[in-house]
Structures are given as C-alpha cells and as structure tokens.
Design brief:
The chain has 335 residues and is α/β, with parallel strands linked by helices. It is 39% helix and 13% strand. The chain has 10 helices and 10 strands. An 8-stranded parallel β-sheet has the order 2-1-5-10-9-6-7-8, sandwiched between helices. Strands 3-4 form a two-stranded antiparallel ribbon. Strand 3 and strand 4 form a beta hairpin. The longest helix has 20 residues, at 84-103. The structure holds zinc ion. Residues 159-161, 244, 246, 286-287 line the site of zinc ion (ZN).
C-alpha cells in the first residue's frame, strides 16, 4: 500500500498515560518495516478553506488560539499542545491525499492509507472531542466533492466507537453516505439504529450498534447483509474507510473480539464492495490503542492488498449480533 505519513503528526504529544500517543505511529512503522511493497508518501497541511468546509469558523479560530497559547486540556480526554495545530492540519491533509490519490486511480497494491493523528471521527462541526480536533475523513470527503473530483462519497467507519462527528457533519447531506459499525453502549453513546439521516440526508446514515463479542462473524455479516446492498444502491465514486482498530480482541478498551485475520477478511470484503460499485478506495486511520494489535492489524490490511488471502471465517454468528443485524435490516426495509 501507499501510506500517507508526516513527522508533524508525531509532534502532537498527549502526555505519558494517554492512549492516543505518537507511539501508535511508531509501532505501525516498525510493523511495516520489513514488508514488501510499502511506500510512504507525504502530503501538504490541509488548507484552512478545506477545514472550514466542514467545521465552524469560530471553533477553528478558538482551537488555533488554544494551541498558540500552549494548549492544555480541551476536555477530560482531549489534550492539545502548541504543535497540535500543525499536526491536526497534517492529519487532515493526509486524509485529503488518500481521497485524491484513490480518485486519481491509485489502487490495487498501491491503495492509499493515511496514517495521520490526531484522529478525526469524533470531531463535530463546532467542537473537538474524543481525542479528535478536525474530522479528517470528513474534510477529505467534502474536499473531493467541492473540487468536482467526486459526486458522492461513502465513509465506512469500522472503529469500535461511533463516529458521532462524521455523522453530525453529514447528517442532512445526501452526497456523503456515513456508515458506522460500533460497540453498543461505548463512548460517545450515539449511533442508534433509528439515526438514519434527515432532510436531503435521509437514508444516507447507517448505524449498526453491535453487542459486545460480535467478533469476526458479526462484523462480516453486517458488512455483507447491510452495508454492501446499501452501497450498491448509493453507488459512491469514492469509498473511504475510517479505519480504527480498537475492536480488536486484544485492544484494551473494547470487547468486540475482532481478530487480526478478521481485519483481513473485512478488508477483502470492502475491496469487493469497491469493485462491485466501481468506487475508488482509500483508508484513513482513526483509533486503535493496543500498540501490537494496532500495528499487526494494519500490517494485515497491507498484506491483503499485497495478495494475502486470509482464511475464511467459519465461526457462528452469536445470537445477540444476529438480532441487531435483523433489527437494522427491518429499519432499512431489507428484511
Ligand atoms: Zn475508537
């Protein structure tokens, strides 16, 4: 794969006990060091205009001043220092690169994956939260639409948390389809089945709040039975994966039990959906807090694009996950 990366993103330092640390990127780079076909690409900082296309001007100014004054605790778990401003612009710029590269035809073994931090999917129109300042995937999606490079974009968010920010930004927008698979009951508590968008965006938001322990079988069933038919109908020009790896079975903060091979199977299925809908495909890093599981899982995504075929999952789907998937199907009128 082509990985978007900038040292600037290491400068956003969050303190010694914060799970969203620069060590995440270092661990990923180490895990990819001996891999065949890994290429690193740098990208420009995002233009202010691109940030302002999805975020409120007053918020952007307040965040800039907060950093210029040395930063501090924005909220209980979101911290900034002076260098966070540039890191946030770099992270958004890398996501833009991934979207543009994908639309320019960078695919197959070259498929783009932006390794930016801070992550983005909790950042709402007018606020930072959940370790996120600028909504990188949202900036990227809106940017390619505004530049006329894509008519519509789908964002599939497989991070274990609901991407409330991405949902918020595009809730009334029919040009960006937002889908989230997340652990029911985790932070930030949004992402219920009945949240399906409104106005022009009615039907362009999909939430699958899976019960703990859903595992590979639950995720794969949700992908093939729910998201795949939805995206075939939506027919996106670009499919961006908001790729967090905190649903991993050894991640310290969740109980979803997705395996490393499971991320490989999800990747393969996402690729098939992109092929089927003739959409460009790119990945944008979100969460993932076990350094080993995060880096192993990204290596797995890379391996799948490099030709590795993960063994088929033959586990049974658990009753509770089946129930959620059937409930979402009923909401979609697909039952
Ligand atoms: Zn997360």
């Amino acid at each position: 794969m082509k990985f978007g990366y900038r040292e600037t993103c290491l400068e956003h330092k969050t303190g010694p006990r914060h799970p969203e640390s620069p060590d995440r990127l270092r661990a990923i780079r180490r895990a990819l060091a001996d891999r065949h076909g890994v290429e690193y690409i740098t990208a420009d900082l995002a233009d202010r205009e691109r940030i302002l296309a999805v975020h409120d001007g007053d918020y952007v100014e307040e965040f800039e001043e907060f950093c210029a004054d040395g930063g501090g605790d924005w909220d209980a778990d979101t911290v900034a220092i002076e260098a966070t401003w540039d890191a946030a612009l770099a992270s958004a710029g890398l996501a833009e690169w991934a979207a543009e590269a994908a639309l320019d035809g960078t695919d197959g073994r070259q498929t783009p994956f932006s390794l930016g931090r801070p992550p983005g999917h909790h950042a709402v129109v007018d606020d930072a939260m959940g370790f996120c300042f600028f909504n990188n995937a949202a900036v990227a999606a809106q940017s390619v639409i505004d530049q006329g490079k894509a008519d519509n974009v789908a964002i599939f968010d497989w991070d274990v948390h609901h991407g409330n920010g991405t949902q918020d930004i595009f809730y009334e927008d029919g040009d960006v389809y937002y889908a989230s698979f997340h652990e029911d009951g985790l932070y930030p508590g949004t992402g219920h089945i009945a949240e399906t968008g409104s106005g022009d965006g009615e039907g362009a938001t999909l939430n699958v709040p899976l019960p703990s322990g859903a595992g590979d079988a639950g995720y794969l069933a949700a992908l093939t039975e729910l998201l795949q038919p939805e995206l075939v109908d939506f027919d996106p020009d670009l499919l961006l994966v908001s790729a967090g790896f905190d649903a991993h079975k050894h991640d310290p903060i969740s109980r979803m039990r997705v395996s490393t091979e499971g991320y490989g199977l999800l990747t393969q299925q996402v690729r098939e959906i992109a092929d089927e809908t003739d959409a460009a495909l790119g990945f944008v890093l979100e969460g993932g807090y076990g350094l080993d599981t995060l880096s192993e899982s990204i290596r797995m995504v890379h391996e799948v694009f490099d030709g590795y075929q993960p063994p088929t999952d033959d586990g049974d789907i658990r009753d509770a996950a089946r129930e959620t998937i059937d409930d979402v199907k009923a909401e979609l009128g697909r039952d």
